[in-house]
Amino acid sequence: MIKIKKLGFSYDEHVVLKDISMELQEGKIYGLLGENGVGKTTLLTLLAGLKKVDDGMLEIDGQKPFNREPSFLSNIYYLPDEVPAPRRKAIDFAIDHGQYWTNFNAQKFSEIMKVFDTDQNQRMDQMSYGQLKKTFISFALACNTKYLFMDEPTNGLDIPSKAQFRKAVSKYTSDDSTLLISTHQARDLEAIIDPIIILDRRDVLMNASLDEIAEKLYFDYSSDVDPDALYQEMVPGGNIQVLRNTTGAESKVNIEALFNAALLHKNEIKEMFNK
Amino acid sequence: MNRFGRYLVTDIKNAIARYGISFLIMATVSLTSYLLVGFFTLIVGTGWYSLEMIPRSVILGITLVILTISAPAKIYGFITDKKEGSQFLMIPASSLEKTLSMIIVCCVVVPFTFFAVYLSLDQILCLIDGRCGDSLIIAIHNGQTVLSDVFQKASMESQNIIPDYSSFTSPWMYADDLAQGFLLFLLGALLFKSSKPAKTVGCLILLSILFSMIMTPIVTHGALEKFKEATANNMTPEELFNTFPFFSWSVKHAVLVDCISDTIVNIGLAIAIYFRVRKIKH
């Protein structure tokens, strides 16, 4: 379990995270949403032990990430937005590096590479950015870690690859794994992320499952405009409106509309989901 | 194989991928310099010139300096890079294992492989071309014998003011100095984000100036008065030498002082590297 209490982090004088508290349960695929610069990447790097917490507490299964104990590191994998291009064949890199992660499965790596339609015998420094990203996604999933943190994994992927990514995550993530995926492109991950965390500047606006969201908010796709809507956007064929769910009616959560509604009504959303 | 063994193997593979070609170029300088000089003299019409032992020794020295300065930055400089450094930090091995592996690669694997290839090629060249004179291996051995004799003689003639430095002529005496060079540039490679060797050299110059400024007054404290006193009292060189107890003791036990000081500095550098690996952030 990931426990974060009153977490604070600054780059010199610039405060990025302040008083952030949340708990992440095991076996779920969390979507981490937020505007540019709210600290999504910083939070992921803190979880991966690449940075040291300034204030507050951050623990993963009782361990402090920055200590970077091998027992901790073998349980996590962090996939950054920008990945390096080693001068090696993808399969050689995977086997050589994968040996340090107890549950790494080379067969699974090869299978995911096939799903992505990427040649595992190609040298990584000769791959396109998208191919390289897919190789690292395959490696991350093949490590079979208990915690997997991904920063903008669909950046640089073409449209078919985004669908392949969703397929790979759904198929190759074990039930007890916890994934935290940060993204700007909520639509890319709509089908796989649940719960949703919306990070605001120095605050957590929401940490809720799709069921909880659907219970409190109603997503209306009709063409009638409601003046009380928290958010309203015209789309081809009608509108998307986010309304307060006063009747208990069921609706399909639209993550992008939810995110925009949360940004427009920060205090109300925060109060609604932190009750 | 245990985790450290596996990590070391991966680290050596990584070193080959990052520095293999540069290393090969440097390790074969004995051959390339022999061929280049030979062909050049042939082209300019003076006939084939075979590089003799002394220029070959100088070339070895220069190549060794370049190797010491470049290898750590090329092999481990990536650790300060956000993308590659993050991957390195996330490998599930302890900071101690990572540090030890780096030190073994830089201070043992690289120099030993370099000497093995370089000296073997030089030996083969000397066997093929008799005009090259002694090979570097034989030269090192002979030089050691000659210097050893000189030191022994000097020691006897100076009535033991100058101690017997013959053990200083063993090439093994310089292994810790070589390791120190690699450790210094390894630390530099981990501390600086760019221009790693240049910044390390700059820091070394600054530290040397600072150290000299601090140590000179301490070592030469009261020296002028002692020299005046020695002149007035017609002191023998041995008597004058003994009026500086710390200095005279250090000179007499130079081999021991060298070993102890190098060991302390090397341990200090290794500890600094360990803490840098442990505390590095991305």
Structure description:
The complex is a heterodimer of chains A (275) and B (282). With 275 residues, chain A is α/β, with parallel strands linked by helices. Chain A folds into two domains: 204 residues, P-loop containing nucleotide triphosphate hydrolases (Rossmann fold); 65 residues, no CATH class. Helices cover 32% and strands 27% of the residues of chain A. Chain A has ten helices and twelve strands. In chain A, helix 4 packs antiparallel against helix 5, helix 5 runs parallel beside helix 6 and helix 9 packs across helix 10. Chain A is globular and about 60 Å long. The model of chain A has no long low-confidence stretch (mean pLDDT 92). Chain B is mainly α and 282 residues long. Chain B has one domain. In chain B, 78% of the residues lie in helices and 0% in strands. Chain B is built from twelve helices and no strands. In chain B, helix 7 packs parallel to helix 12. The radius of gyration of chain B is 23 Å and the shape is globular. Chains A and B meet through helix 2 and strand 5 of A and helix 1 and helix 4 of B.
Question: What descriptive keywords fit this protein?
Answer:
heterodimer, A: 275 residues, alpha/beta, Rossmann fold, 2 domains, six-stranded mixed beta sheet, three-stranded antiparallel beta sheet, 10 helices, 32% helix, B: 282 residues, mainly alpha, 12 helices, 78% helix, globular
Brief summary of the model shown:
The complex is a heterodimer of chains A (275) and B (282). Chain A has 275 residues and is α/β, with parallel strands linked by helices. Chain A is built from 10 helices and 12 strands.
Overall pLDDT of chain A: 92
Helix-strand topology string of chain A: EEEHEHEHHHEHEHEEHEEEHH
Oligomer: heterodimer
What string gives the helices and strands of chain B in order?
Answer: HHHHHHHHHHHH
Q: Biggest β-sheet of chain A: count, sense, barrel? A: 6 strands, mixed
| Strand percentage of chain B | under 5%
Biggest interface: chains and residue counts? A-B, 27 and 26 residues
Sheet having the most strands of chain B: none
Mean pLDDT of chain B: 88
**Which stretches of chain B are poorly predicted, pLDDT < 50 over at least 5 residues?**
none
Number of helices of chain B: 12
Radius of gyration of chain B, in Å, reads: 23 Å
Terminus-to-terminus distance of chain A: 22 Å
CATH architecture of the largest domain in chain A: 3-Layer(aba) Sandwich
Q: What is the CA-based Rg of chain A, rounded?
A: 19 Å
DSSP E strands of chain A, number: 12
- In total, the number of domains of chain A comes to 2
